[in-house]
Amino acid sequence: METKTEKTTAALAHLSALSQYFIPFGNFIFPIIIWSSKKDKSEFIDYHGKQVINFQLSLLLYSIIFALIAVPTFATVVFSSMDWNELLNDQDVIFEKINMANNINLITTGIVAVLLIILLKIAEFFLIIIGAISASNGEKYKYPITINFIK
Q1: Do 9 and 34 meet the contact criterion of CB atoms below 8 Å apart?
Q2: Mean pLDDT (whole number) for 101-129
């Protein structure tokens, strides 16, 4: 049976991931600090701390993958229709030269990748709240789509 302090600390570990909206990389820093300071004292906190960190690392990996799809895709669409002489001679990039019909597959792929990043961030917010509520109720919570980097 978990104590009230353990439940509160585990919930705080989940909620500390929301610090990313105020402090860069706070979603990694604060859960790691909470987890590493209490993991030896409580199996419950150790479990929840690992879940939060694994979830944040998984989302970072997914976001990087989608960004690596979106950025080159949009760059290919924009620069495939441009003449290198225009670009090198400080000419403005003219979006009217982009042939949308020939690049619809690339544009669609880029838009889908960007939308997936946005959906991941929205899901992350709600899943963190659900994880914190579960921890405060003394339940073990496992985030979906999480790769277990820390076992």
Answers
A1: yes
A2: 91
Cβ-count burial 22-59 (b if 16+ within 10 Å, e if not) = eeeeebbebbbebbeebbeebebbbbbbbbbbbbbbbb
Contacts of 127 (CB under 8 A, 6+ apart): 55, 143, 144
Residue type, 31: P
CA angle 56/35/1 to nearest 5° reads 115
| Cα(65)–Cα(88) distance, integer angstroms | 30
User: pTM for the complete prediction?
Assistant: 0.85
Nearest to 67 by CA among 9, 116, 136: 116
**Contacts within 8 Å (CB) and 24+ apart, 127-131:** 127/55, 128/14, 128/15, 128/17, 128/18, 128/52, 129/15, 131/14, 131/48, 131/51, 131/52, 131/55
Q: What percent of the chain has pLDDT over 90?
A: 71
Q: What is the pLDDT of residue 151?
A: 87
Contacts of 34 (CB under 8 A, 6+ apart): 9, 12, 13, 16, 45, 49
